[in-house]
């Protein structure tokens, strides 16, 4: 996931990011914040981290929106928090981003495989996930999406490139490199196929479950855990509302 985000930001480059802001929530996965913080100086953007409210464990959608403005080039949304399982309202956040001219990137890692996600209706420019978690895969691979509008005339030219970044990987003319017209331009050298092979059985199992079955089972377990938390008098930092 971190590598996929790095390639996306690199593809945007200074042309899109220099002198503007990148917005991220304080409850994002730490690896993502480490990455963006390190890239800020390289691409000339200011990283703005939307803070938690005092005494709260996740960033509210309203607070994320309040920090948005025309100077925000990219809004990085964590769909489901790895810390509290809080789910962001993607439709609301994406619509607001469009209204102020921001691009939208979404980390779907903690929800992919258990909550339906459709890139055709999410209104995002970029989305990615590891193959771990609910997808039941192994480390070393994942999935990524880049909106066609950014690929077709969007000027995305990632600096890290290799022979698999081309339309024809078997072009050996070192003076005639050209990016592939689709997401393959984010490939680099010879891919490592073993993680994909090892992840396939898990993917097949997830895809073979009845629609909604995994989510329903997950909710049953969550409800039971919440009951235990309440019985013990512990503080619950995750939302109680199933829609969140």
Automatic annotation (TrEMBL):
- Is the keyword Transcription in the record? no
Aminotransferase class V domain sequence ranges: 2-231
Q: Which GO terms describe its biological process?
A: anthranilate metabolic process; L-tryptophan catabolic process to kynurenine; NAD+ biosynthetic process
The UniProt entry, under Pfam families, shows:
Aminotran_5
One GO MF term: pyridoxal phosphate binding
GO cellular component: a single term: cytoplasm
| Presence of the UniProt keyword Membrane in the record | no
Q: Which UniProt keywords apply?
A: Pyridoxal phosphate
Indicate what this protein is called per its UniProt record: Kynureninase
Please give the organism.
Caballeronia udeis
């Amino acid at each position: 996931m971190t590598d996929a985000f790095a390639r996306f930001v690199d593809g945007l480059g200074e042309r899109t990011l220099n002198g503007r802001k990148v917005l991220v929530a304080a409850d994002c996965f730490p690896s993502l914040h480490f990455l963006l913080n390190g890239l800020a100086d390289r691409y000339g953007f200011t990283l703005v981290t939307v803070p938690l409210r005092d005494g709260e464990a996740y960033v509210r959608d309203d607070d994320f929106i309040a920090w948005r403005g025309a100077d925000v080039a990219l809004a990085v949304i964590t769909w489901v928090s790895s810390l509290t399982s809080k789910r962001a309202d993607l439709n609301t956040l994406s619509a607001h981003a469009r209204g102020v001219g921001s691009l939208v990137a979404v980390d779907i890692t903690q929800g992919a495989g258990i909550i339906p996600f459709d890139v055709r209706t999410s209104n995002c420019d970029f989305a990615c996930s590891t193959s771990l978690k609910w997808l039941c895969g192994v480390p070393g691979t994942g999935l990524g999406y880049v909106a066609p509008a950014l690929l077709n005339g969007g000027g995305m030219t990632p600096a890290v490139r290799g022979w698999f970044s081309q339309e024809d990987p078997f072009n050996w003319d070192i003076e005639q490199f050209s990016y592939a017209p689709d997401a393959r331009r984010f490939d680099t050298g010879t891919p490592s196929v073993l993680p994909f092979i090892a992840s396939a059985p898990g993917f097949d199992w997830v895809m073979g479950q009845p629609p909604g079955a995994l989510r329903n089972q997950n909710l049953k377990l969550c409800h039971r855990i919440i009951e235990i938390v309440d019985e013990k008098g512990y503080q619950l930092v995750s939302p109680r509302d199933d829609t969140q």
